[in-house]
Amino acid sequence: MSAVIESIETLLVDLPTIRPHKLSMTTMACQTLVIVRLRDSDGIEGLGEGTTIGGLAYGPESPESIKRNIDSYLAPLLIGQPADNLNALRARLARHARGNAIAKSALETALLDARGKRLGLSVAELLGGARHDHLPVLWTLASGDTAKDIDEAFQRLDEGRHRDFKLKIGANPVDIDVRHVAAIKAALGDRASVRVDVNQAWDETTAVRGIAALQDAGIALIEQAIPAREHAGLIRLAGRFRVPMLADEAVADARDGFALAAGGFNGAFALKIAKSGGPRGALALADVAQAAGIGLYGGTLLEGTIGTAASLHAWATLPEMAWGTEMFGPLLLKDDIVAEPLAYRDFGVELPTGPGLGITLDEDKLAHYSRK
Predict the structure, then answer these.
(1) Is 51 exposed, middle or buried (0-12, 13-18, 19+ CB in 10 A)?
(2) For 224-252, what is each residue's pLDDT tens digit?
(3) Is residue 326 annotated as a catalytic residue, yes or no?
(4) Is position 168 annotated as part of the catalytic site?
(5) 55, 134, 166, 356: most buried, per Cβ within 10 A?
(6) CATH code of 331's domain
């Protein structure tokens, strides 16, 4: 008989960040991970992670709601079911539970990790096979202080860790944000590319003014300048400027991607396993983008090592990510809960090896940082 899912445990894990991380909607000094430990009847354990940004400041799921909804609603749908039929399990979750994409992503990751361990295959192999074993990673400069951000960028360049940088803006008046960004780009010159993430903070009129100035400053990419639901405005902005627009919150899944592509959007899509309900949903969105000639970018919700590894296994299967990835989440944290951290080098990160995610927990660290 095949193994069945025997138990699903969730833990809230609070990890401090190396510095305050400033976004348009909040400033973070701690990241809370929801760790999933899924155990099958044959003794195999699968690990998953559900992570969001700033509690409810970013979206409709918080760490506490992710944990509660898995414990109360989603885990009972899976316990007792055959462990290896991921298609049936995903369909069961979709049929009985609406939304909750981050919670579902954590569970799908744990299911893939367990199946990979059972078969002796990596998650990338379960998803069709890795085309890359090293992926480029940018760094987000989000202290809000221009001089500090410039110093931090040069430090990352000199370390050989990052040569592409993203700036979180939108919390300040547009002129102040543009001056901040332009000063950093001028200081870095041709040594590095600079992108910005507005986190939906502008209306379309403000975006036209801000993007024009950012384009003149040499900014390479503009992420989600206006609210997510304003698809028509995003399409207009993409057609108006030379600098590409990156759709993030506007494009969660393949349906969103098709709607934007059909409307004439010609920028790039930010893939995130969390907003797509798991690695396979994110790859379905990537298929739509590739069919429409839209560039790809590997996004993050500042996951820890488990969630980052799951994303890397998915991104490694894609033929090309024109805009690279931002899978730096573990580097933003002061400590980790895994036995062996991810290997960041040569302006990128190595794909973890071994069965499943290739990640093992440090039980002492997990116990130390788990919320009591």
Answers:
(1) buried
(2) 999 999 999 999 999 999 999 999 999 99
(3) yes
(4) yes
(5) 356
(6) 3.20.20.120
